[in-house]
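Re: the 313-residue chain
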Amino acid sequence: MSMVTMVHKLAWFRSVIPVVVTLALMGCSSPSSDAADAVSPATSSSSKTPSPVPERVQWQKTSFYSKSLGKKMDVNIYLPPNYSADKRYPVLYLLHGFGGTSSDWLPYSGLPDVADRMIMDEEIDALIVVSPQIDNSFGINSSSAPASVNGIGLNEGRYEDYIVNDVRQYVEQNYPADPSAESRFIGGISMGGFAALHIAFRHPDLYGKVGGHSPALWFEESTEYRDQKEWVLGDRETKKHRDPMELALSENLNNLSVYLDCGGSDFFAPRAIKLYQLLASRNVQAELHIPRGGHDPGYWMSHVGDYLKFYAG
């Protein structure tokens, strides 16, 4: 698949998925809300008209200034049914793919409606879901300079620090997030899958679970997207600190649960299988799923419920 094809697929993901979601998941407007039932006051000459019951905001778009990147970044956040600032919720960070945006997971994947249903049916615990903009960065610290775009269309900057520190601190300072590692999860699709694995494997003390959904991984001999591969993995020494395949063998991941999945016709599937084998060889708690499907939005949308069960079931 060429880079142009990949970008076109992701553009389609953002532009036409709202229609698909409406048909497949009974609607996902942006932003959407569930109105509470109003209670009529008792009839009395002195009674006052009650204040309107605030409508629930299912998900919201916000932004904040990232010190690591030196610029303002968008973040979309899902809030569960019966959300209360007096509770503490586990938090799931979901990262988009190449060419994507913070809106790919929330709301275009249909996750808000799927999560609502599963929480109300007690299939999963109530949780906050955070989808930050990560640009075309692969979630790595590639430059100490302010964020910029290089000659091959990749975003350089301290994106790992942005995700690990800036986004996490923003969420935990502004929302009732459980700050414990066992209640903090991270996952992503394609490029975002690489980023999630890279980050969780480098910071296993900060995350309890990680999901690589069709993760963009490379074998040593891989030739596709060569310019991206050389930029992301760098020289031999740099590769040791960036490649999830290498980190799976060098880091202590005993307290981390790992979920890997890939469509059976996705050319990334053999790499996901190899990563699972490396993790299993070290007795890391990991699971692998290779169902039918390709590397496309339809595949990811059809498995949103499976992903939520892993993180919050």
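The CA atoms of residues 151 and 261 lie 32 Å apart.
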